C-alpha cells in the first residue's frame, strides 16, 4: 500500500505527499490483521474521528460475495448494503458516512438506558438516581431529534450544502422541543452570528458516545481481492483519492 502512495507524482491530481503525516496516522490506526483479507473479497474502512477526547479511530470490515470484482461493482455492492440498512444513497459509499457511524453507535446510549435501575445507589454501581435516568432519557430524545433532522436534510447544511461542523438551528419555537420539524441543519458558517459562539460542537449527531464526535478528520479504504490490496482510497480534507494497485 505504501508503494502505491509512493508512486504518485508530485503535482499530479492524486499527489498525497502533502498529507504524509495524516496517512501515517491512518495506517498506524489499523488495529489488527483481519483473517478474511486472505480468503474473501473485503472492503476495510477506517475513519479518524475528531472527538472531545482527541482523534480516535473508527473502523469496519465489509466481507463481499466471493466473485471477481471491478471497482464499480464494489461501489454498487456497498450502495446496496446501505440500502438494506435503510440509509440514503451517497456518491462515494467506499468511505464511512456520518450516518453509518451514528447508526453503529446508537446501542451505546440504549445499553446505558436498559441497564438503569431505579432506587438509591448500591455498591455494585448498577443503580443510578432518577435524576440521572431523566437526563439519559432527555439525551436519547435529543439524539433522536438530531438524527431525524440530519436524515431529512441529507446530512448537509440547508443553506450552503456543507458536510462538516453541522448544527441544529431552531426555526419554530411553537413546536415541541424534540420535534425535528422545528429545526433546520446549518453549518457553523451559516448560523446567525449570535449563535456561533454558543453552538454546540457536538450537535451534528456524529457520536463516539452520545454527543462526543465533532467530525471525520480523514479516512482510509482498502479493497482486497484474492488476498491482495487491489484499490487504496483516501479522504483527506474532503478530497477523494482512489488508486489501483
Summarize the structure in words.
By secondary structure, this protein is an alpha+beta fold. The model is unreliable at 197-208 (pLDDT under 50). The relative contact order is 0.18. The protein has one domain. The chain contains six helices and seven strands, in the order H-H-E-E-H-H-H-E-E-H-E-E-E. It has a five-stranded antiparallel sheet with strand order 2-1-5-6-7, covered by helices on one side. It has helices at 2-6, 20-28, 71-84, 98-114, 130-152, 193-196; strands spanning 42-51, 54-63, 166-170, 183-187, 213-225, 228-236, 239-244. It is globular and about 55 Å long.
The helix count comes to: 6
Number of strands: 7
How far apart, in Å, are the first and last alpha carbons? 8 Å
Order of helices and strands: HHEEHHHEEHEEE
How many domains, in number, for the residues? 1
| Overall radius of gyration | 20 Å
Helix content range of the residues, please?
Answer: 25-40%
Main beta-sheet strand count, sense and barrel state = 5 strands, antiparallel
Low-confidence stretches: 197-208
Side-by-side strand order of the widest sheet:
2-1-5-6-7
Secondary structure: elements and pairs:
Elements: H1 2-6, H2 20-28, E1 42-51, E2 54-63, H3 71-84, H4 98-114, H5 130-152, E3 166-170, E4 183-187, H6 193-196, E5 213-225, E6 228-236, E7 239-244
Antiparallel strand pairs: 1-2, 1-5, 3-4, 5-6, 6-7
Helix pairs in contact: 4-5
Short description:
The protein is an alpha+beta fold.
Key features of this structure:
245 residues, alpha+beta, five-stranded antiparallel sheet, 24% strand
